[in-house]
Amino acid sequence: MGKPLIVTIDGPAGVGKSTMAKQLAGHLSIPYLDTGAMFRSIAWKLGDGAWDWDKDRIQMTLDGMNFGLSGIGEDSVLTLNNTPVGSEIRTEQVGMWASNIATLPVIRTFLKTAQQNLGEKFSLVAEGRDMGTVIFPGAPHKFFLDASVEERANRRFKQLSSMNKPADFDELKDQISKRDHQDRNRVVAPLKAADDAITIDSTEMNKEQVFTVLKDGVA
Ligand code: DC
């Protein structure tokens, strides 16, 4: 068997990375790795305020955590200790907790090893904030997906409304801006495009147009 193929997609909150990564992984018939879900799962397990805990206490909890991956494309399943990660991690609040713990080197070091181990085992479309810069710097295909904060809040608003969930545009915009600021300005592995990434500003693009750029980029 040859060396696994790695495609990276990085970008800010709410830009549509997961949708695109799943679709591209399906197109390539390989698994998709949602690294935000790894940070979210840890944040959820540790709970509110864990970013102020001492390093050893966090490390002890991390030592009992084992991430796995099965399936391909849309059917990729991320597991934590053999249980699929659930929808409870998909709230803006858990997203903010995830962004908070993502500033801690102890967490990033742990997940770097977990993510690189998965990349040794499987071909992947890996999406997150530091896939192209830190985790898979040698990946042959790297993308950075961007869009204005208004457009991202708008997409999230429409998504929540279509699910009949309560949504406030200004609040969403504020939450997304705060998370972006923290993700872009942290000391370790901040959100940024790799020098050799193809940047796609999707503010004025639809999903099909974005997917065409991705598909052509890996062809
Ligand atoms: O992609 P997401 O919204 O599910 O990510 C949640 C948070 O996790 C994000 O705000 C920052 C952190 N994260 C990170 O620091 N590095 C990654 N590769 C993925 C996510």
Task: Explain what the structure shows.
- The protein is of the alpha/beta class and about 220 residues long.
- It has a single domain, classed as P-loop containing nucleotide triphosphate hydrolases (Rossmann fold, 3-Layer(aba) Sandwich), CATH 3.40.50.300.
- Helix content is about 50%, strand content about 15%.
- It has nine helices and eight strands.
- A hairpin with a 2-residue loop joins strand 4 and strand 5.
- Helix 4 runs parallel beside helix 8 and helix 7 crosses helix 8.
- The radius of gyration is 17 Å and the shape is globular.
- The model has no long low-confidence stretch (mean pLDDT about 95).
- Bound molecules: 2'-deoxycytidine-5'-monophosphate.
- The site of 2'-deoxycytidine-5'-monophosphate has 14 residues, from helix 2, helix 4 and helix 8.
- Its EC number is 2.7.4.25.
- Keywords: ATP-binding, Cytoplasm, Kinase, Nucleotide-binding, Transferase.
- GO terms for molecular function: kinase activity.
- Belongs to the cytidylate kinase family. Type 1 subfamily.
